[in-house]
Specification:
This protein has helices at about 15-35, 50-60, 65-75, 90-105, 120-135, 160-170, 185-195, 210-215, 225-230, 250-265; strands spanning about 5-10, 40-45, 80-85, 110, 140-150, 175-180, 200-205, 235-240. By secondary structure, it is of the alpha/beta class. It has two domains: about 5-115 and about 245-265, Rossmann fold (3-Layer(aba) Sandwich), CATH 3.40.50.1400; about 120-205 and about 210-240, Rossmann fold (3-Layer(aba) Sandwich). The longest helix has 19 residues, at about 15-35.
Amino acid sequence: MSVENALLVVSFGTTATESLRLNIESVEQKIGEAAGGSWSVRRCFTSQTIINILDKKKKIKVDNINEALERAAADGVKNLVVQPTHLMKGLEYDKLCSTLADHAGSFRNTAVGDPLLTSEDDLDRVAEALIEASAGYEDGETALVFMGHGTEADANGIYKKLQCVLGGKGKTGYYIGTVEAEPALDDVIKAVGEGNIKRVVLRPLMLVAGNHAVNDMASPDDPDSWYSRFSAEGYETICIIEGLGQLSAVRDIYADHANRAIASLNGQL
């Protein structure tokens, strides 16, 4: 099957099929709609562990990045745009770009779209999306706490930048922490404790509400989960298990990034 133009959407992946549909598939669909009918949208995951579980337990086949690039080349793709659903230009993004460079000779033209949080405009749009999604909980005594993954790369600073953007919009009751980097959960608990807070609402700051959201954030059985830690501090704690992919404004940003990558090829198509 010969395909001239392909748009490869690259995600870490998830084994939760409903979350896959609500978050990853919805982003892919939006990207495809915005790109137009001349671009074939394809999927790949970067987590081989997730790929293997989906294949073995749920009979769902998903390519890894090398398989997806080899398949595109075999299908005769000439113009390839790769759109990651990563949040930032961290280690996973760098690895993706390096892998694409290794395969660049298989295609006439290639381009990579930006992750979700790249420009100042991206930060502003995501902040507005979080505010809109949380508006029903704002009462002056509720803290809106967002759990990011975190990375050892310098890109981890994007969380603090997003926190500053929220603060600049007057959202002093919004807090961002990470599972594996800074700000850590202890930092967030301390910050929340400095306010007149009685209730805490937890949401994942991740594309997919997967294992981190279900276990690290929301598990009532794990004394180290964010839910348990805030509850132990005496707060009424509510968990919202929704990924960023369920927010239409976030899907729009990914689509815009993909279209900018397509536009960068326009002079070559």
